[in-house]
Amino acid sequence: RLLEGCPVMRGFRTHRYPTPEQIRPAGEFVAGVLSSLRRTVSVGDNLLEIDAEVHRMIREAGATSCYLDYHPSFGASPFGKVICLSVNNAVLHGRPYDRTLESGDLLSMDFAIELEGWVADSSLSIVVGEQREDHLKLIRDTESVMWAGIGAARAGNTVGDIGHAVETRAAELGYTINHEFGGHGVGRTMHEAPFVPNFGAPGSGQKLREGMAITVEPFLTPTTDVMTITERDGWTVESGDGSTGAHAEHTLIVTKGEPIIVTARSDDPA
To answer: What digits encode the pLDDT tens for the residues 1-54?
Structure first.
């Protein structure tokens, strides 16, 4: 689903992977913006104001938004904003609108830009105001599931190995995984092959090659794996039963050993 309309699906075999040096400026910018938002977003902020501030940061950096004109077949219209902001039961692809954040809200922020010819993509979830323990646990669990998938991202493994690691860790923590959405390749554009599922059998799917740039991108809700796209904007993906969701994502480069985390944030919990 993520790759619908993606032009690089044609001719992927000749795709050139970015070196760490080439993609690092994009990764550091994405990481820096998300870290800044984690520090500054607070109760009373409006989603449209957050989007406008991120747009300003993009312009000042000379970067290009991956979202403004993005219009795959599953989107009702061009996205038209520069960051996905998903609140509570909105889990993915939250299109910013006139909504003020309240104490205890769980906000997931998904952000991708192109800088110096290469794309980086990452997502971070936070709790605004009152630090509700149920929301904090959900975020911790989602990040744990992401790191399990990242741990399987080694040259010679497959995307199925990543998906199996994600789904296994989620099950250990008491969650089921949605099978429609997942991670993806990145490079010159935001959504490239291969699709990196959040489920799978060991050894299945595309083999991971050294130097490949991909994202690992799980999201969790405590009581359902069913998702619906809201009629409000034709973009925002909400949990089917109204439960709150959390989302985590990093861009990485595959190596023979530990992957290189392109969007690593210095303020992430150890």
So the answer is: 444 433 333 333 345 799 999 999 999 999 999 999 999 999 999 999 999 999
- 3-class DSSP assignment, residue 214: strand
Catalogue the E-assigned strands of 25-141.
64-65, 84-87, 90-92, 106-115, 118-127
As to burial, measured by CB atoms within 10 angstroms (0-12 exposed, 13-18 middle, 19+ buried), residue 60 is exposed
> How many CB atoms lie under 10 A from the CB of residue 40?
10
SS3 of 106, please? strand
What is the Cα–Cα distance from 227 to 223, expressed in whole angstroms? 11
Q: What is the pLDDT of residues 144-163, one digit of tens each?
A: 999 999 999 999 999 999 99
Name the β-bridge partners of 261: 252
Q: Beta-strand (E) ranges in 142-203?
A: 183-185, 192-196
- CA-to-CA dists, residue 187 to 114, 162, 193, 214, 253, angstroms: 9, 19, 10, 8, 10
CA distance 71 to 263: 24
